[in-house]
Amino acid sequence: MDSLTLKLILTPTLIGAASLAGRRWGPAVSGWLVGLPLTSGPIAFFLALNQGMAFARAAAVGTLTGTISQAAFCLAYGWLASRFAWPLTVLASSLIFAGSTVALQYLTLPLVTLFLTVILLLILANFLMPRRPEVSSSAGMLPLWDIPARMVIATAFVLLLTGLAPMLGPHLTGLLSPFPLYAAILAVFAHHLRGPAPAAGVVKGLLLGLFAFASFFLVLAALIEQVGIALAFAAAIMVMAVFQGGSLWVLQRMSG
User: Fold this and answer.
1) Better-scored residue on pLDDT, 245 or 17
2) pLDDT tens profile 77-136
3) Number of other CB atoms surrounding residue 35 within 10 Å
4) C-alpha to C-alpha distance for 116 and 99, rounded to whole angstroms
5) Count of H helices and E strands in the chain?
6) Which of 206, 222, 169 shows the shortest CA–CA distance to 61?
7) pLDDT above 70 for 210
8) Contact 36, 18 (CB under 8 A)
9) What's the pLDDT at 234?
10) Whole-prediction pTM value?
């Protein structure tokens, strides 16, 4: 099976499954689920297949660094959602992500130091998020076409970024791949159809999920050149599962 076929099958399958689970358990869980590397993970996999291990390792370091930009996006959306309509909120949050990405191009830290820095900043971001009750509503309010639309948009993003990767270089490709496209789609739908509180719930859940996201790319960057694609991804997924389980426990405590 060639890499294009994998992209066209794997990405929409992952996104569709996460969407259905999010509909079942609500906006915060939906945001927590997209903390998983549902687009950046496939991007890393296809980069390793098409560009080689060294390129994929450098991109993984960039993606780990880009977790900081995701946290900035979440903070911006969480605070702006109650003040502005969704178009301005998502535009301003995306601009903050872009500004953070530009600044982070010049950040070079040893891998473990970078990971610890990301973890500390995620803890700070969770602390700074606005505290507001999440308003639940029926999943039936969502249009029938929204999950297929999410699958198409996410797949297009993977195809575009992996296609541009040789031109962008590994570090910038890695920095751009964590753009929370899927979380932005979820937040926009929640904001438009249900109001600002559920939209803030999405990005709050995403922030909790980013601990697992960061752990995935730490392990991937540390191992992929040493042990190859299969073992590196297997180890990254196992470590990610541990972190994701811990963040789910926190999410349940916060919701309880």
Assistant:
1) 245
2) 989 988 888 889 999 999 999 899 889 888 889 999 999 999 999 999 989 988 764 444
3) 28
4) 22
5) 11, 0
6) 222
7) yes
8) yes
9) 95
10) 0.79
CA nearest 196: which of 47, 43, 104, 79? Answer: 79
Q: Where are the domains of the chain?
A: 3-134+159-255
What gap in Å lies between CA 96 and CA 101, rounded to an integer? Answer: 8
* 161 Cβ contact list (under 8 Å, min separation 6): 43, 173, 176, 177
Count CB atoms within 10 A of the CB of residue 170. 22
Q: Who has greater pLDDT, 94 or 24?
A: 94
Structure tokens that stand for 3 in this block:
């890499």
Q: Which long-range contacts link 84-89 to residues 24+ away (Cβ below 8 Å)?
A: 85/191, 86/187, 86/188, 86/191, 86/192, 86/199, 89/191, 89/199
Which residues have C-beta within 8 Å of that of residue 131, sequence separation ≥ 6? none
Report the distance separating Cα 219 and Cα 90, nearest Å: 31
Which residue type does 203 have?
V
DSSP state of 211: H
Q: Token digits for 49?
A: 């297949």
**Distance between CA 93 and CA 81 in Å, rounded?**
10
Alpha carbon 149 to its chain's center: 18
Contacts 24+ apart (CB under 8 A), 155-160: 155/7, 155/8, 155/11, 155/12, 155/15, 157/39, 157/181, 158/7, 158/11, 158/39, 158/42, 158/43, 158/46, 159/7
Quick check: 139 and 147 in contact, CB under 8 A?
Answer: no
Distance in angstroms (rounded) separating the CA atoms of residues 152 and 143: 15
Hey, what amino acid is at 6? L
